[in-house]
Queue: 2 jobs
Job 1
Amino acid sequence: MNTSRKSFIKTLGTFGLLPWAITQSAAAQQLTTPSRLNGSNPKTLAVGSRNALRGVELAVSMMADGQDPLDAAVEGVKIQELDPDDMSVGYGGLPNEHGVVQLDASCMHGPTKRAGAVGCLEGIKTPSEVAKAVLELTDHIMLVGDDAKTFALQLGFQEENLLTERAREAWLRWKRNLNPSDNWLNEDGSNPTSTGTVHISALTQQGDVGSITTTSGLSYKIPGRVGDSPIIGAGQYCDQRVGSAGSTGRGEANIMACGSFYVVERMRSGESPEQACLSALQRVVEMTESRLLDDDGRPRFNLNYYALNVNGEFGGATMRKPSQRSLDNGGGTFAVAEPGNARLEPMAWLFD
Ligand code: ASP
């Protein structure tokens, strides 16, 4: 207790208010979180969304070489950000309604208790690195839009056209098919929509955690829309004493539930990572407006959580049991890596 608080309590005592102060102090003590999850026995581990398989493998090999968990996680997600074939993130991501790629990312670093984020960033292939620069170089947590781009350019990032030919053609197809009575002639053919984002949570042998989530957001979104990925506590969250979590799927639903924060808090109160992910999905259901629920009260959208704790346990969960076809093609899985062993593991689901 610092000196000024001591003298404050002394003053309260003078006015006969000390019992209140003691009660408050006892309540505050109850709210104090444990210094470390019980039985903490960390190991080098990374978990993430399914598209992070190469990323978690890289992240654990970097951490096994002694590198920082956030540095490792960022290098991991950059593989997808720079991959033109991943249409859910970074370069090659599907654009907004106007055909412009707008990217969101956020990250946290357990040891230093710092966070960084960017929203609606245009023209920079790796928003994960810009979010980390916000974390490392500024006293702020989130920069958005043109000013986030200016910040990145000042740091030496290159401005580039992020709209690949494939993504532009997909957008044009979407636009032509949007409205049967406008002046665009409709075109047949399937159209990719973005259900993706890449998340990595990382843990070192020393028990340090880091987390990052990066995305091009929902495809064909209204310009300026910011999803959950850059929101601390929604798209990702980590706490050095407990563990780390992240999310992909319908961002609006995840924001309402403060999902990644909630997963970490459930782990803090003793739930396994998998159970904590299921608890967060349950909270999402409770926070969902009726227009988005089917007749059985189940969400019409999908959402996934991924988590690890500082004991080296991990889990993932998704809203609905994937179809058999999807399961046969590796759906319903998330990426896990320990040194020398990167793999996809099955996720739990809330609804059959
Ligand atoms: N969560 C992302 C967003 O809402 C999209 C996704 O993961 O599919 O921006």
Note: Residues 18-31 form the longest helix (14 residues).
Job 2
Amino acid sequence: MKVKKAVIPAAGFGTRMLPITKAQPKEMVPVVHKPVIQYVVEEAYFSGINDILIITGRGKRAIEDHFDRSDIPKKEKFTEELDNILKEINIFFVRQKEQRGLGDAVNYAESFVDDEPFALLLGDTITFPPCTKELIETYNKFKTSIIAVEEVPHEKVNLYGIVDCKEIENFVFLIEDLIEKPGKDEAPSNLAILGRYILTPEIFDAIRNTEPGKGNEIQLTDAMRMLNMRERMYAYLFRGKRYDIGNKLDWLIANIEVAVSDSELGEAVKRFLNSI
Ligand code: UTP
């Protein structure tokens, strides 16, 4: 079965980005020309997906407004680009009633997903080039759940979901286990889950059977751990760039990197950076 649907959870608190996120969703924080979530929707679209469900919640209404087609008479390049994409895609919204964790948020996608495999893209994470496109290509070969991972420094493993796995071909690993934010001494590898997944609908049953874990939240990693006991799962090593806009350093770096490679702003930004 082909991957035709995407789910984007965007209901989290965003406490690490306070006070920026006090009265606006962190997914609407700008990275140069566009809010973060626009990059995420564009990634789904450029990966061949036309039906997208965004999971929102309290304080997140600006996200819905952003994806209305604009009625501004004088067109602007990036608004027009988005309008053209919006002509071709359907965006649906559902509200997570309480912020009970990423696993709980994903569970709201069950009736949208139905019985198909789907792409899951965290609404506060951007990747260049589009990681979802590479994941779908890998899914088409293995036909089971695949999680994108990246190498992180050993001293930072406690900040991520980490996979225990063995390489079966270039950049593809069979997952043996998954651990959410392990201590530095218990981490089985330095391969960290980066926020892009292809999952089979069996994940919903696993989420239903997952007890609240770290932080008293329903952790997606714990549900995937259960899924991994029932079906084969793979990890795919993404070699591009990914930015977690939910932390201030990554957000700043993303802005600088996007600005430096921008056709209008790039040269001036480089001159400025050299000058300081
Ligand atoms: P984070 O782990 O970054 O959590 O969520 P958070 O609550 O958004 O941010 P902090 O930790 O308070 O700073 C990862 C992704 O999962 C979504 C977030 O919107 C983000 O895209 N999420 C998280 C939900 O949709 N619902 C939740 O209950 C938790």
Note: The domain at 5-275 is CATH 3.90.550.10 (Spore Coat Polysaccharide Biosynthesis Protein SpsA; Chain A).
